[in-house]
Request: fold
Amino acid sequence: MTISRGGVSGGLTITDALREFETQGYTGQFVVRPEGAVECQACGTQHRPAGVPLDAMRRIEGVSDPADMVFVGALRCPRCGSMGTATIKYGPAAPAEDAMVLRELQNKRASTLHTREDADESLVSDTGWLPGPDGPG
Reply:
């Protein structure tokens, strides 16, 4: 259980999200690489984000600092099966490769949503920052 510390994300910190996923078996790590690839640290394989299963997610939104805008995803490597987490920035301070990864994850997720309620569970586009043809502009 997360104790609220206030703020937009209900006080959930990056550490809280990582600990939550770790207790669920997501002990590995994934990192964003240039040109929007996601690399599994267990086997070293780089994947397109659309090919990596996203099992769960948490968005961390800082109270006043845009640098605190982070997506924490629970991912599974399609090659070795490792379960791990990725922390990816979003918002105005996000690097271009992070935005590319989130866009692919959002497009993949949107293609699997079937109900109106699900449509409100956006990864990032409801924050209004996602640029490009697939996001608000």
Notes: The first helix runs from residue 14 to 23. The mean pLDDT is 79. Residues 14-124 form one domain. The radius of gyration is 14 Å.
